[in-house]
Specification:
By secondary structure, the protein is mainly α. It has a domain of 108 residues. Helices cover 67% and strands 0% of the residues. It has 7 helices and no strands.
Length: 208
């Protein structure tokens, strides 16, 4: 297990990696996402979304490393604790621009942001239902029977919820990687600029 000093160095490396990613793209996608933290109208290109997604992943990894990298033998460190709090708060705040840019990315492929809402709701309902059933099975010492019944389709409601959640998440992921609509659509102007103003022009289909 790495020492506290090593974990701080690794966490800083994660954070600096996110900063380098921002600089390599001119910093514009990440800055734009923060500027539009609560702006869910309009559209976002694939590059804008995926740069911020990478940055957010690095931020979350740094937080997890700081929080869960401790052991009972690790000496306490106020510096590491304060750094974990700062990174954690920043990660929580960054969740809002991440959701906003995801909605705008769906708009870019002419899809409603309700797809994301449906994905979140189905995920929450599935986790809640699964948690209740598992806790009930553990309380009655019937976990093995519960797993067998679930695999055999006995819990059809829970099975349907899990399958629906996976299907919606796959659909949302496909939308996120799909090329945006060429030209304007019902959600706004093409984020890639006036060069794609002519809707449906085959010269522009598939470009960022």
């Amino acid at each position: 297990m790495p020492s506290m000093r090593s974990r701080r160095v690794i966490a800083r490396a994660f954070t600096s990696a996110g900063a380098r990613a921002a600089r390599s793209s001119g910093g514009l996608p990440i800055a734009t996402c923060y500027r539009k933290s609560f702006h869910k109208r309009g559209r976002a290109s694939r590059s804008e979304f995926w740069w911020f997604a990478l940055y957010y992943l690095v931020l979350e990894a740094a937080f997890e490393l700081l929080v869960h990298g401790r052991t009972p033998y690790t000496p306490p460190s106020w510096g590491a604790g304060l750094l974990a709090v700062v990174v954690g708060l920043f990660a929580i705040y960054s969740f809002f621009p991440f959701v906003s840019v995801e909605i705008r990315r769906l708009h870019d492929v002419d899809r409603s942001g309700w797809w994301l809402v449906a994905s979140m709701l189905m995920g929450a309902l599935s986790e809640a239902a699964l948690g209740v059933d598992v806790m009930s099975a553990l309380a009655t010492h019937r976990l093995r029977q519960f797993v067998r019944a679930l695999m055999d389709g006995g819990h059809w409601g829970l099975t349907f919820a899990l399958v629906a959640t996976v299907a919606i998440n796959i659909a949302v992921f496909i939308f996120l990687v799909w090329p945006g609509t060429a030209g304007d659509n019902r959600y706004g102007r093409d984020p890639r600029g006036a060069g794609r103003a002519k809707r449906g022009d085959p010269r522009f289909v598939g470009r960022h």
